[in-house]
Amino acid sequence: GSVTATPDKPVYTWDMTVTVGESSTWYQAAQRFAETLSRESGGRMKLRIFTGEQLSAGDPAAGVEQLMNGDKDFSYNSTIIYAGIDPRFGAINAPFLYRDYDEADRALQGGATAAYEKLSSEIGVKMLGFGESGFRQLTNNVRPVNEPADLAGIKVRIPGIGMFTDIFRRLGANPTTMNFSEVFTSLQQGTIEGQENPMDVISSAGLAEVQRHLTVWNYVYDPLILGMNQDLFRSLSPADRKIVEAAAADANAFQIETNRGLEQQQIDEQSKLMKTTVLTDAQVARFRAAVRPLYESYEPVWGPEMVRAVSPER
Amino acid sequence: MIGVVLFGSFFVLLLLGVPVAFALGMAACVSLVAMGGFGELSIVPNVFTASVASETLLAIPFFILAGVIMEYAGISRRLVDFAHACVGRRKHGLAIVVIIAAFFFSAISGSGPATVAAIGSILIPALIRQGYAARHATSLLASAGSMGIIVPPSVAFIIFAVVVSDYAGVSIVRLFVAGIVPGILLAAALVVASLFLPRTQPVKVAAGAGAGSGGGHGGDRGDGGDAGSPPAGEGAEAAASRGLGASFGKAVPGLLVPLIILGGIYGGIVTPTESAVVAAVYALLVGLLVYREISPRQLYRILVTASAQSAVVMLIVGAASVFAYVVTVNQIAENLSDALLGLTGNTVLIVLLAIVVLLIVGAFIDAVSALYLFVPIIAPVLLEAGVDVTTIGVMMVVNLALGLVTPPVGVNLFVAAGIAKVPLAEVVKGIRPFFAAGLVVLLLVAYVPELSNWLPDLLGF
Amino acid sequence: MQRSSSERVLTTAENVLAAVPFAVVAVVAFVNVISRYFLNASLAFTSELTVNLAVWMVMMGAVIGLREGAHLGFSALHEKATGIARQVMTVLITVAILTFLVVLLYFGVDMAIAQLDSGRATPSIRIPQWLFTAALPVGALFGVYRTVQASRAGFRRSTMDSQPSEEADR
Ligand code: NA
Ligand code: NA
């Protein structure tokens, strides 16, 4: 039924975007968020969800700008996209920063989440916690990648952020940027020979059809910011803020749990379709050593505060 | 409600005579203000720049640049000469030369009017001298030029791939390959139609007197011929009197361009965007070093011309993206799609309905605008009806290619009329047989998915 | 056509602001292909430059389009109209084009200022983003002038007989 707005019970219609499609855990979590908001507010909070960055002509960075200036209300966006706007956001995407999810979780609870909330606030975004795209893994057609030398000369498609170029150049690969919609065909044609993405993307895009080798190396941890326009958040009544924050926490917890559950399943499935190597700690250590010099050049970019906040508590 | 404001104000502005790009942008602005006041307009520059600053769409200016360079380099004229040497001596040979040359140039150029302009300035006067009425000469050129967006490379397929990605994924490369067979079909259909053209006794004119003089005029090209266009060549008739071998030799650098573009993409060497820039550089080298028809100082002029031509398309992309934003936030396309699906569940009828809608739309607006406006409405309906995305792409592009030659807004007609210096109405009088030929191909493509899918499947795209 | 020297300067400025970004984009993109395939050295970071420069190319190219009447549209009714009706239509067309340009100008300035304030720069080369966004207000400003000019001429220069930019020959 319809809801009547009164001064103390305003009615809202909000827009939210997610970068990926309807089959993603991002979208499922956004739907759950919408349902919770509607239920807990007695139907006063309506959330419309748009996939594929449809509100910004497919451009996620422009989508974050919309969130910053209030043209849009909510979004799930990777910190990698935020780093395109303010490079300090890239600190948590540092290469080989965390070994596994336990380590990442400890860092998030130990100060990283608070640091990102503060950082988001500086650009006009109220961060309602982290979701998760997961660890990014590598596929390619040239050879199994077990150590840095194996990447030599491989043409790898990467996100259009400077740090990713530097990581792959450092490792001797030949990185290139490309619209994701062209990746499948380009892998098939050989225009590119490899790519890196979270398991969910690798699996749902069916890349195994055009890729021979999968390397599970957890090289970049990729959290999602559930962001809300800050002015909008501040305009809410304390009670409504609580509803939004609780619904967001529930959606994030659901998203992370679903994503991690699926990831192991996806690794199992994909390893039947591609020759899969899960790198040992010793192997990962060699990669970490190879990219170590990057930390020196990027730490000034991220700033000491962010570097400290994301550092794993070993 | 917003949907009525949006589409209503768009069509009012369009009919008033506001250029399509500005009508799209303005209709979107009016709707945004209606949705939530002037503050909503802050979305406009955000969406505009996001849509224009796209790596995929960079292919469009590059393909346009390559086309302009090739015209200046004299490549198009040599392609015409070669086509003429192949078939020019037969009855109706010159008409067939037009179609073959247009096919060659379509494999270089990504746009319809560019194709008409490139070969029209040479071939329209030649056709008229051979006894064809101006209305037939111009309408033949305009129709043959519509292969420009069907035969790869194609600006229309690039836009389709970008816009349809919200509903179904298909790569630009697959669409490019899918356009080849329908392109050949259209060429064949146009040949058949041209065999029935009436002709009077040829006018005797010294070879080369008129042919090849002047570049393409007007259209959306923003460039005329005269001072900066390629120097007058030998003329098609003269070429026909020389050997096949000689003209082939001269045309080889031009004939290599499609090989570089398509071979480069299909061979996995370059992306579509990169292939376009490689083609432009290659054409430049041919023009500077092989044919020596481009002087370095002409480069500036080429760049100005190409940037204006690209901007005409890309401004539509930017404005149409703002328009599409209003459509998306108000879920207008979904409502229209549902309404369409509610009309009938019969696939044959739904496809026919889509064709009729696009024929009407194509009469009034260009292919790029039409794709931004109608892919979100039509593609989900056709997908739901079980049509595959490749067929949808080819069908919509062939449909809108017909729009290039349907009045009142048919860019190819404008360009052909401009070259021949005849009134638009005169060109329109001659278009019927070619339009009919195109319609047959459109129906075949729409109802026989194998025509689009066979080649890309065979080659594994 | 009589052309004042200020007109010539303006035309040159428009052409240069469109042609130079185009040339840079094309050269950088080509060098990227060459370096990737022949030198095996990626210049992946250059894509943020080429993609963003396209905004300048588009805005200034669109101004040339306004100058030369190259923007496509349905002009049949406007051409047929006479007298007051035609004048009214001319005014309405002008207002529509100008309004869209003014939106790009006003909100483009807003966006550029917001980017300037937040210090947003391209991810790899760190070129301030507002330098690209500035193409919107700058292009719109040139566009406003060209629209008023075309309006005075009654938008008579249809797409059919548009002339080449004479300046480009020099
Ligand atoms: Na083409
Ligand atoms: Na038309």
UniProtKB/TrEMBL annotation, chain B:
<feature type="transmembrane region" description="Helical">
    <location>
        <begin position="275"/>
        <end position="291"/>
    </location>
</feature>
<feature type="transmembrane region" description="Helical">
    <location>
        <begin position="400"/>
        <end position="419"/>
    </location>
</feature>
<feature type="transmembrane region" description="Helical">
    <location>
        <begin position="339"/>
        <end position="364"/>
    </location>
</feature>
<keyword id="KW-0472">Membrane</keyword>
<feature type="region of interest" description="Disordered">
    <location>
        <begin position="210"/>
        <end position="237"/>
    </location>
</feature>
<protein>
    <recommendedName>
        <fullName>TRAP C4-dicarboxylate transport system permease DctM subunit domain-containing protein</fullName>
    </recommendedName>
</protein>
<dbReference type="InterPro" id="IPR010656">
    <property type="entry name" value="DctM"/>
</dbReference>
<feature type="transmembrane region" description="Helical">
    <location>
        <begin position="114"/>
        <end position="132"/>
    </location>
</feature>
<feature type="compositionally biased region" description="Low complexity">
    <location>
        <begin position="228"/>
        <end position="237"/>
    </location>
</feature>
<feature type="transmembrane region" description="Helical">
    <location>
        <begin position="251"/>
        <end position="269"/>
    </location>
</feature>
<feature type="transmembrane region" description="Helical">
    <location>
        <begin position="175"/>
        <end position="197"/>
    </location>
</feature>
<dbReference type="InterPro" id="IPR004681">
    <property type="entry name" value="TRAP_DctM"/>
</dbReference>
<feature type="transmembrane region" description="Helical">
    <location>
        <begin position="303"/>
        <end position="327"/>
    </location>
</feature>
<feature type="transmembrane region" description="Helical">
    <location>
        <begin position="91"/>
        <end position="108"/>
    </location>
</feature>
<keyword id="KW-0812">Transmembrane</keyword>
<feature type="domain" description="TRAP C4-dicarboxylate transport system permease DctM subunit">
    <location>
        <begin position="7"/>
        <end position="451"/>
    </location>
</feature>
<feature type="transmembrane region" description="Helical">
    <location>
        <begin position="47"/>
        <end position="70"/>
    </location>
</feature>
<feature type="transmembrane region" description="Helical">
    <location>
        <begin position="139"/>
        <end position="163"/>
    </location>
</feature>
<keyword id="KW-0997">Cell inner membrane</keyword>
<feature type="transmembrane region" description="Helical">
    <location>
        <begin position="431"/>
        <end position="449"/>
    </location>
</feature>
<keyword id="KW-1003">Cell membrane</keyword>
<keyword id="KW-1133">Transmembrane helix</keyword>
<feature type="transmembrane region" description="Helical">
    <location>
        <begin position="371"/>
        <end position="394"/>
    </location>
</feature>
<dbReference type="Pfam" id="PF06808">
    <property type="entry name" value="DctM"/>
</dbReference>
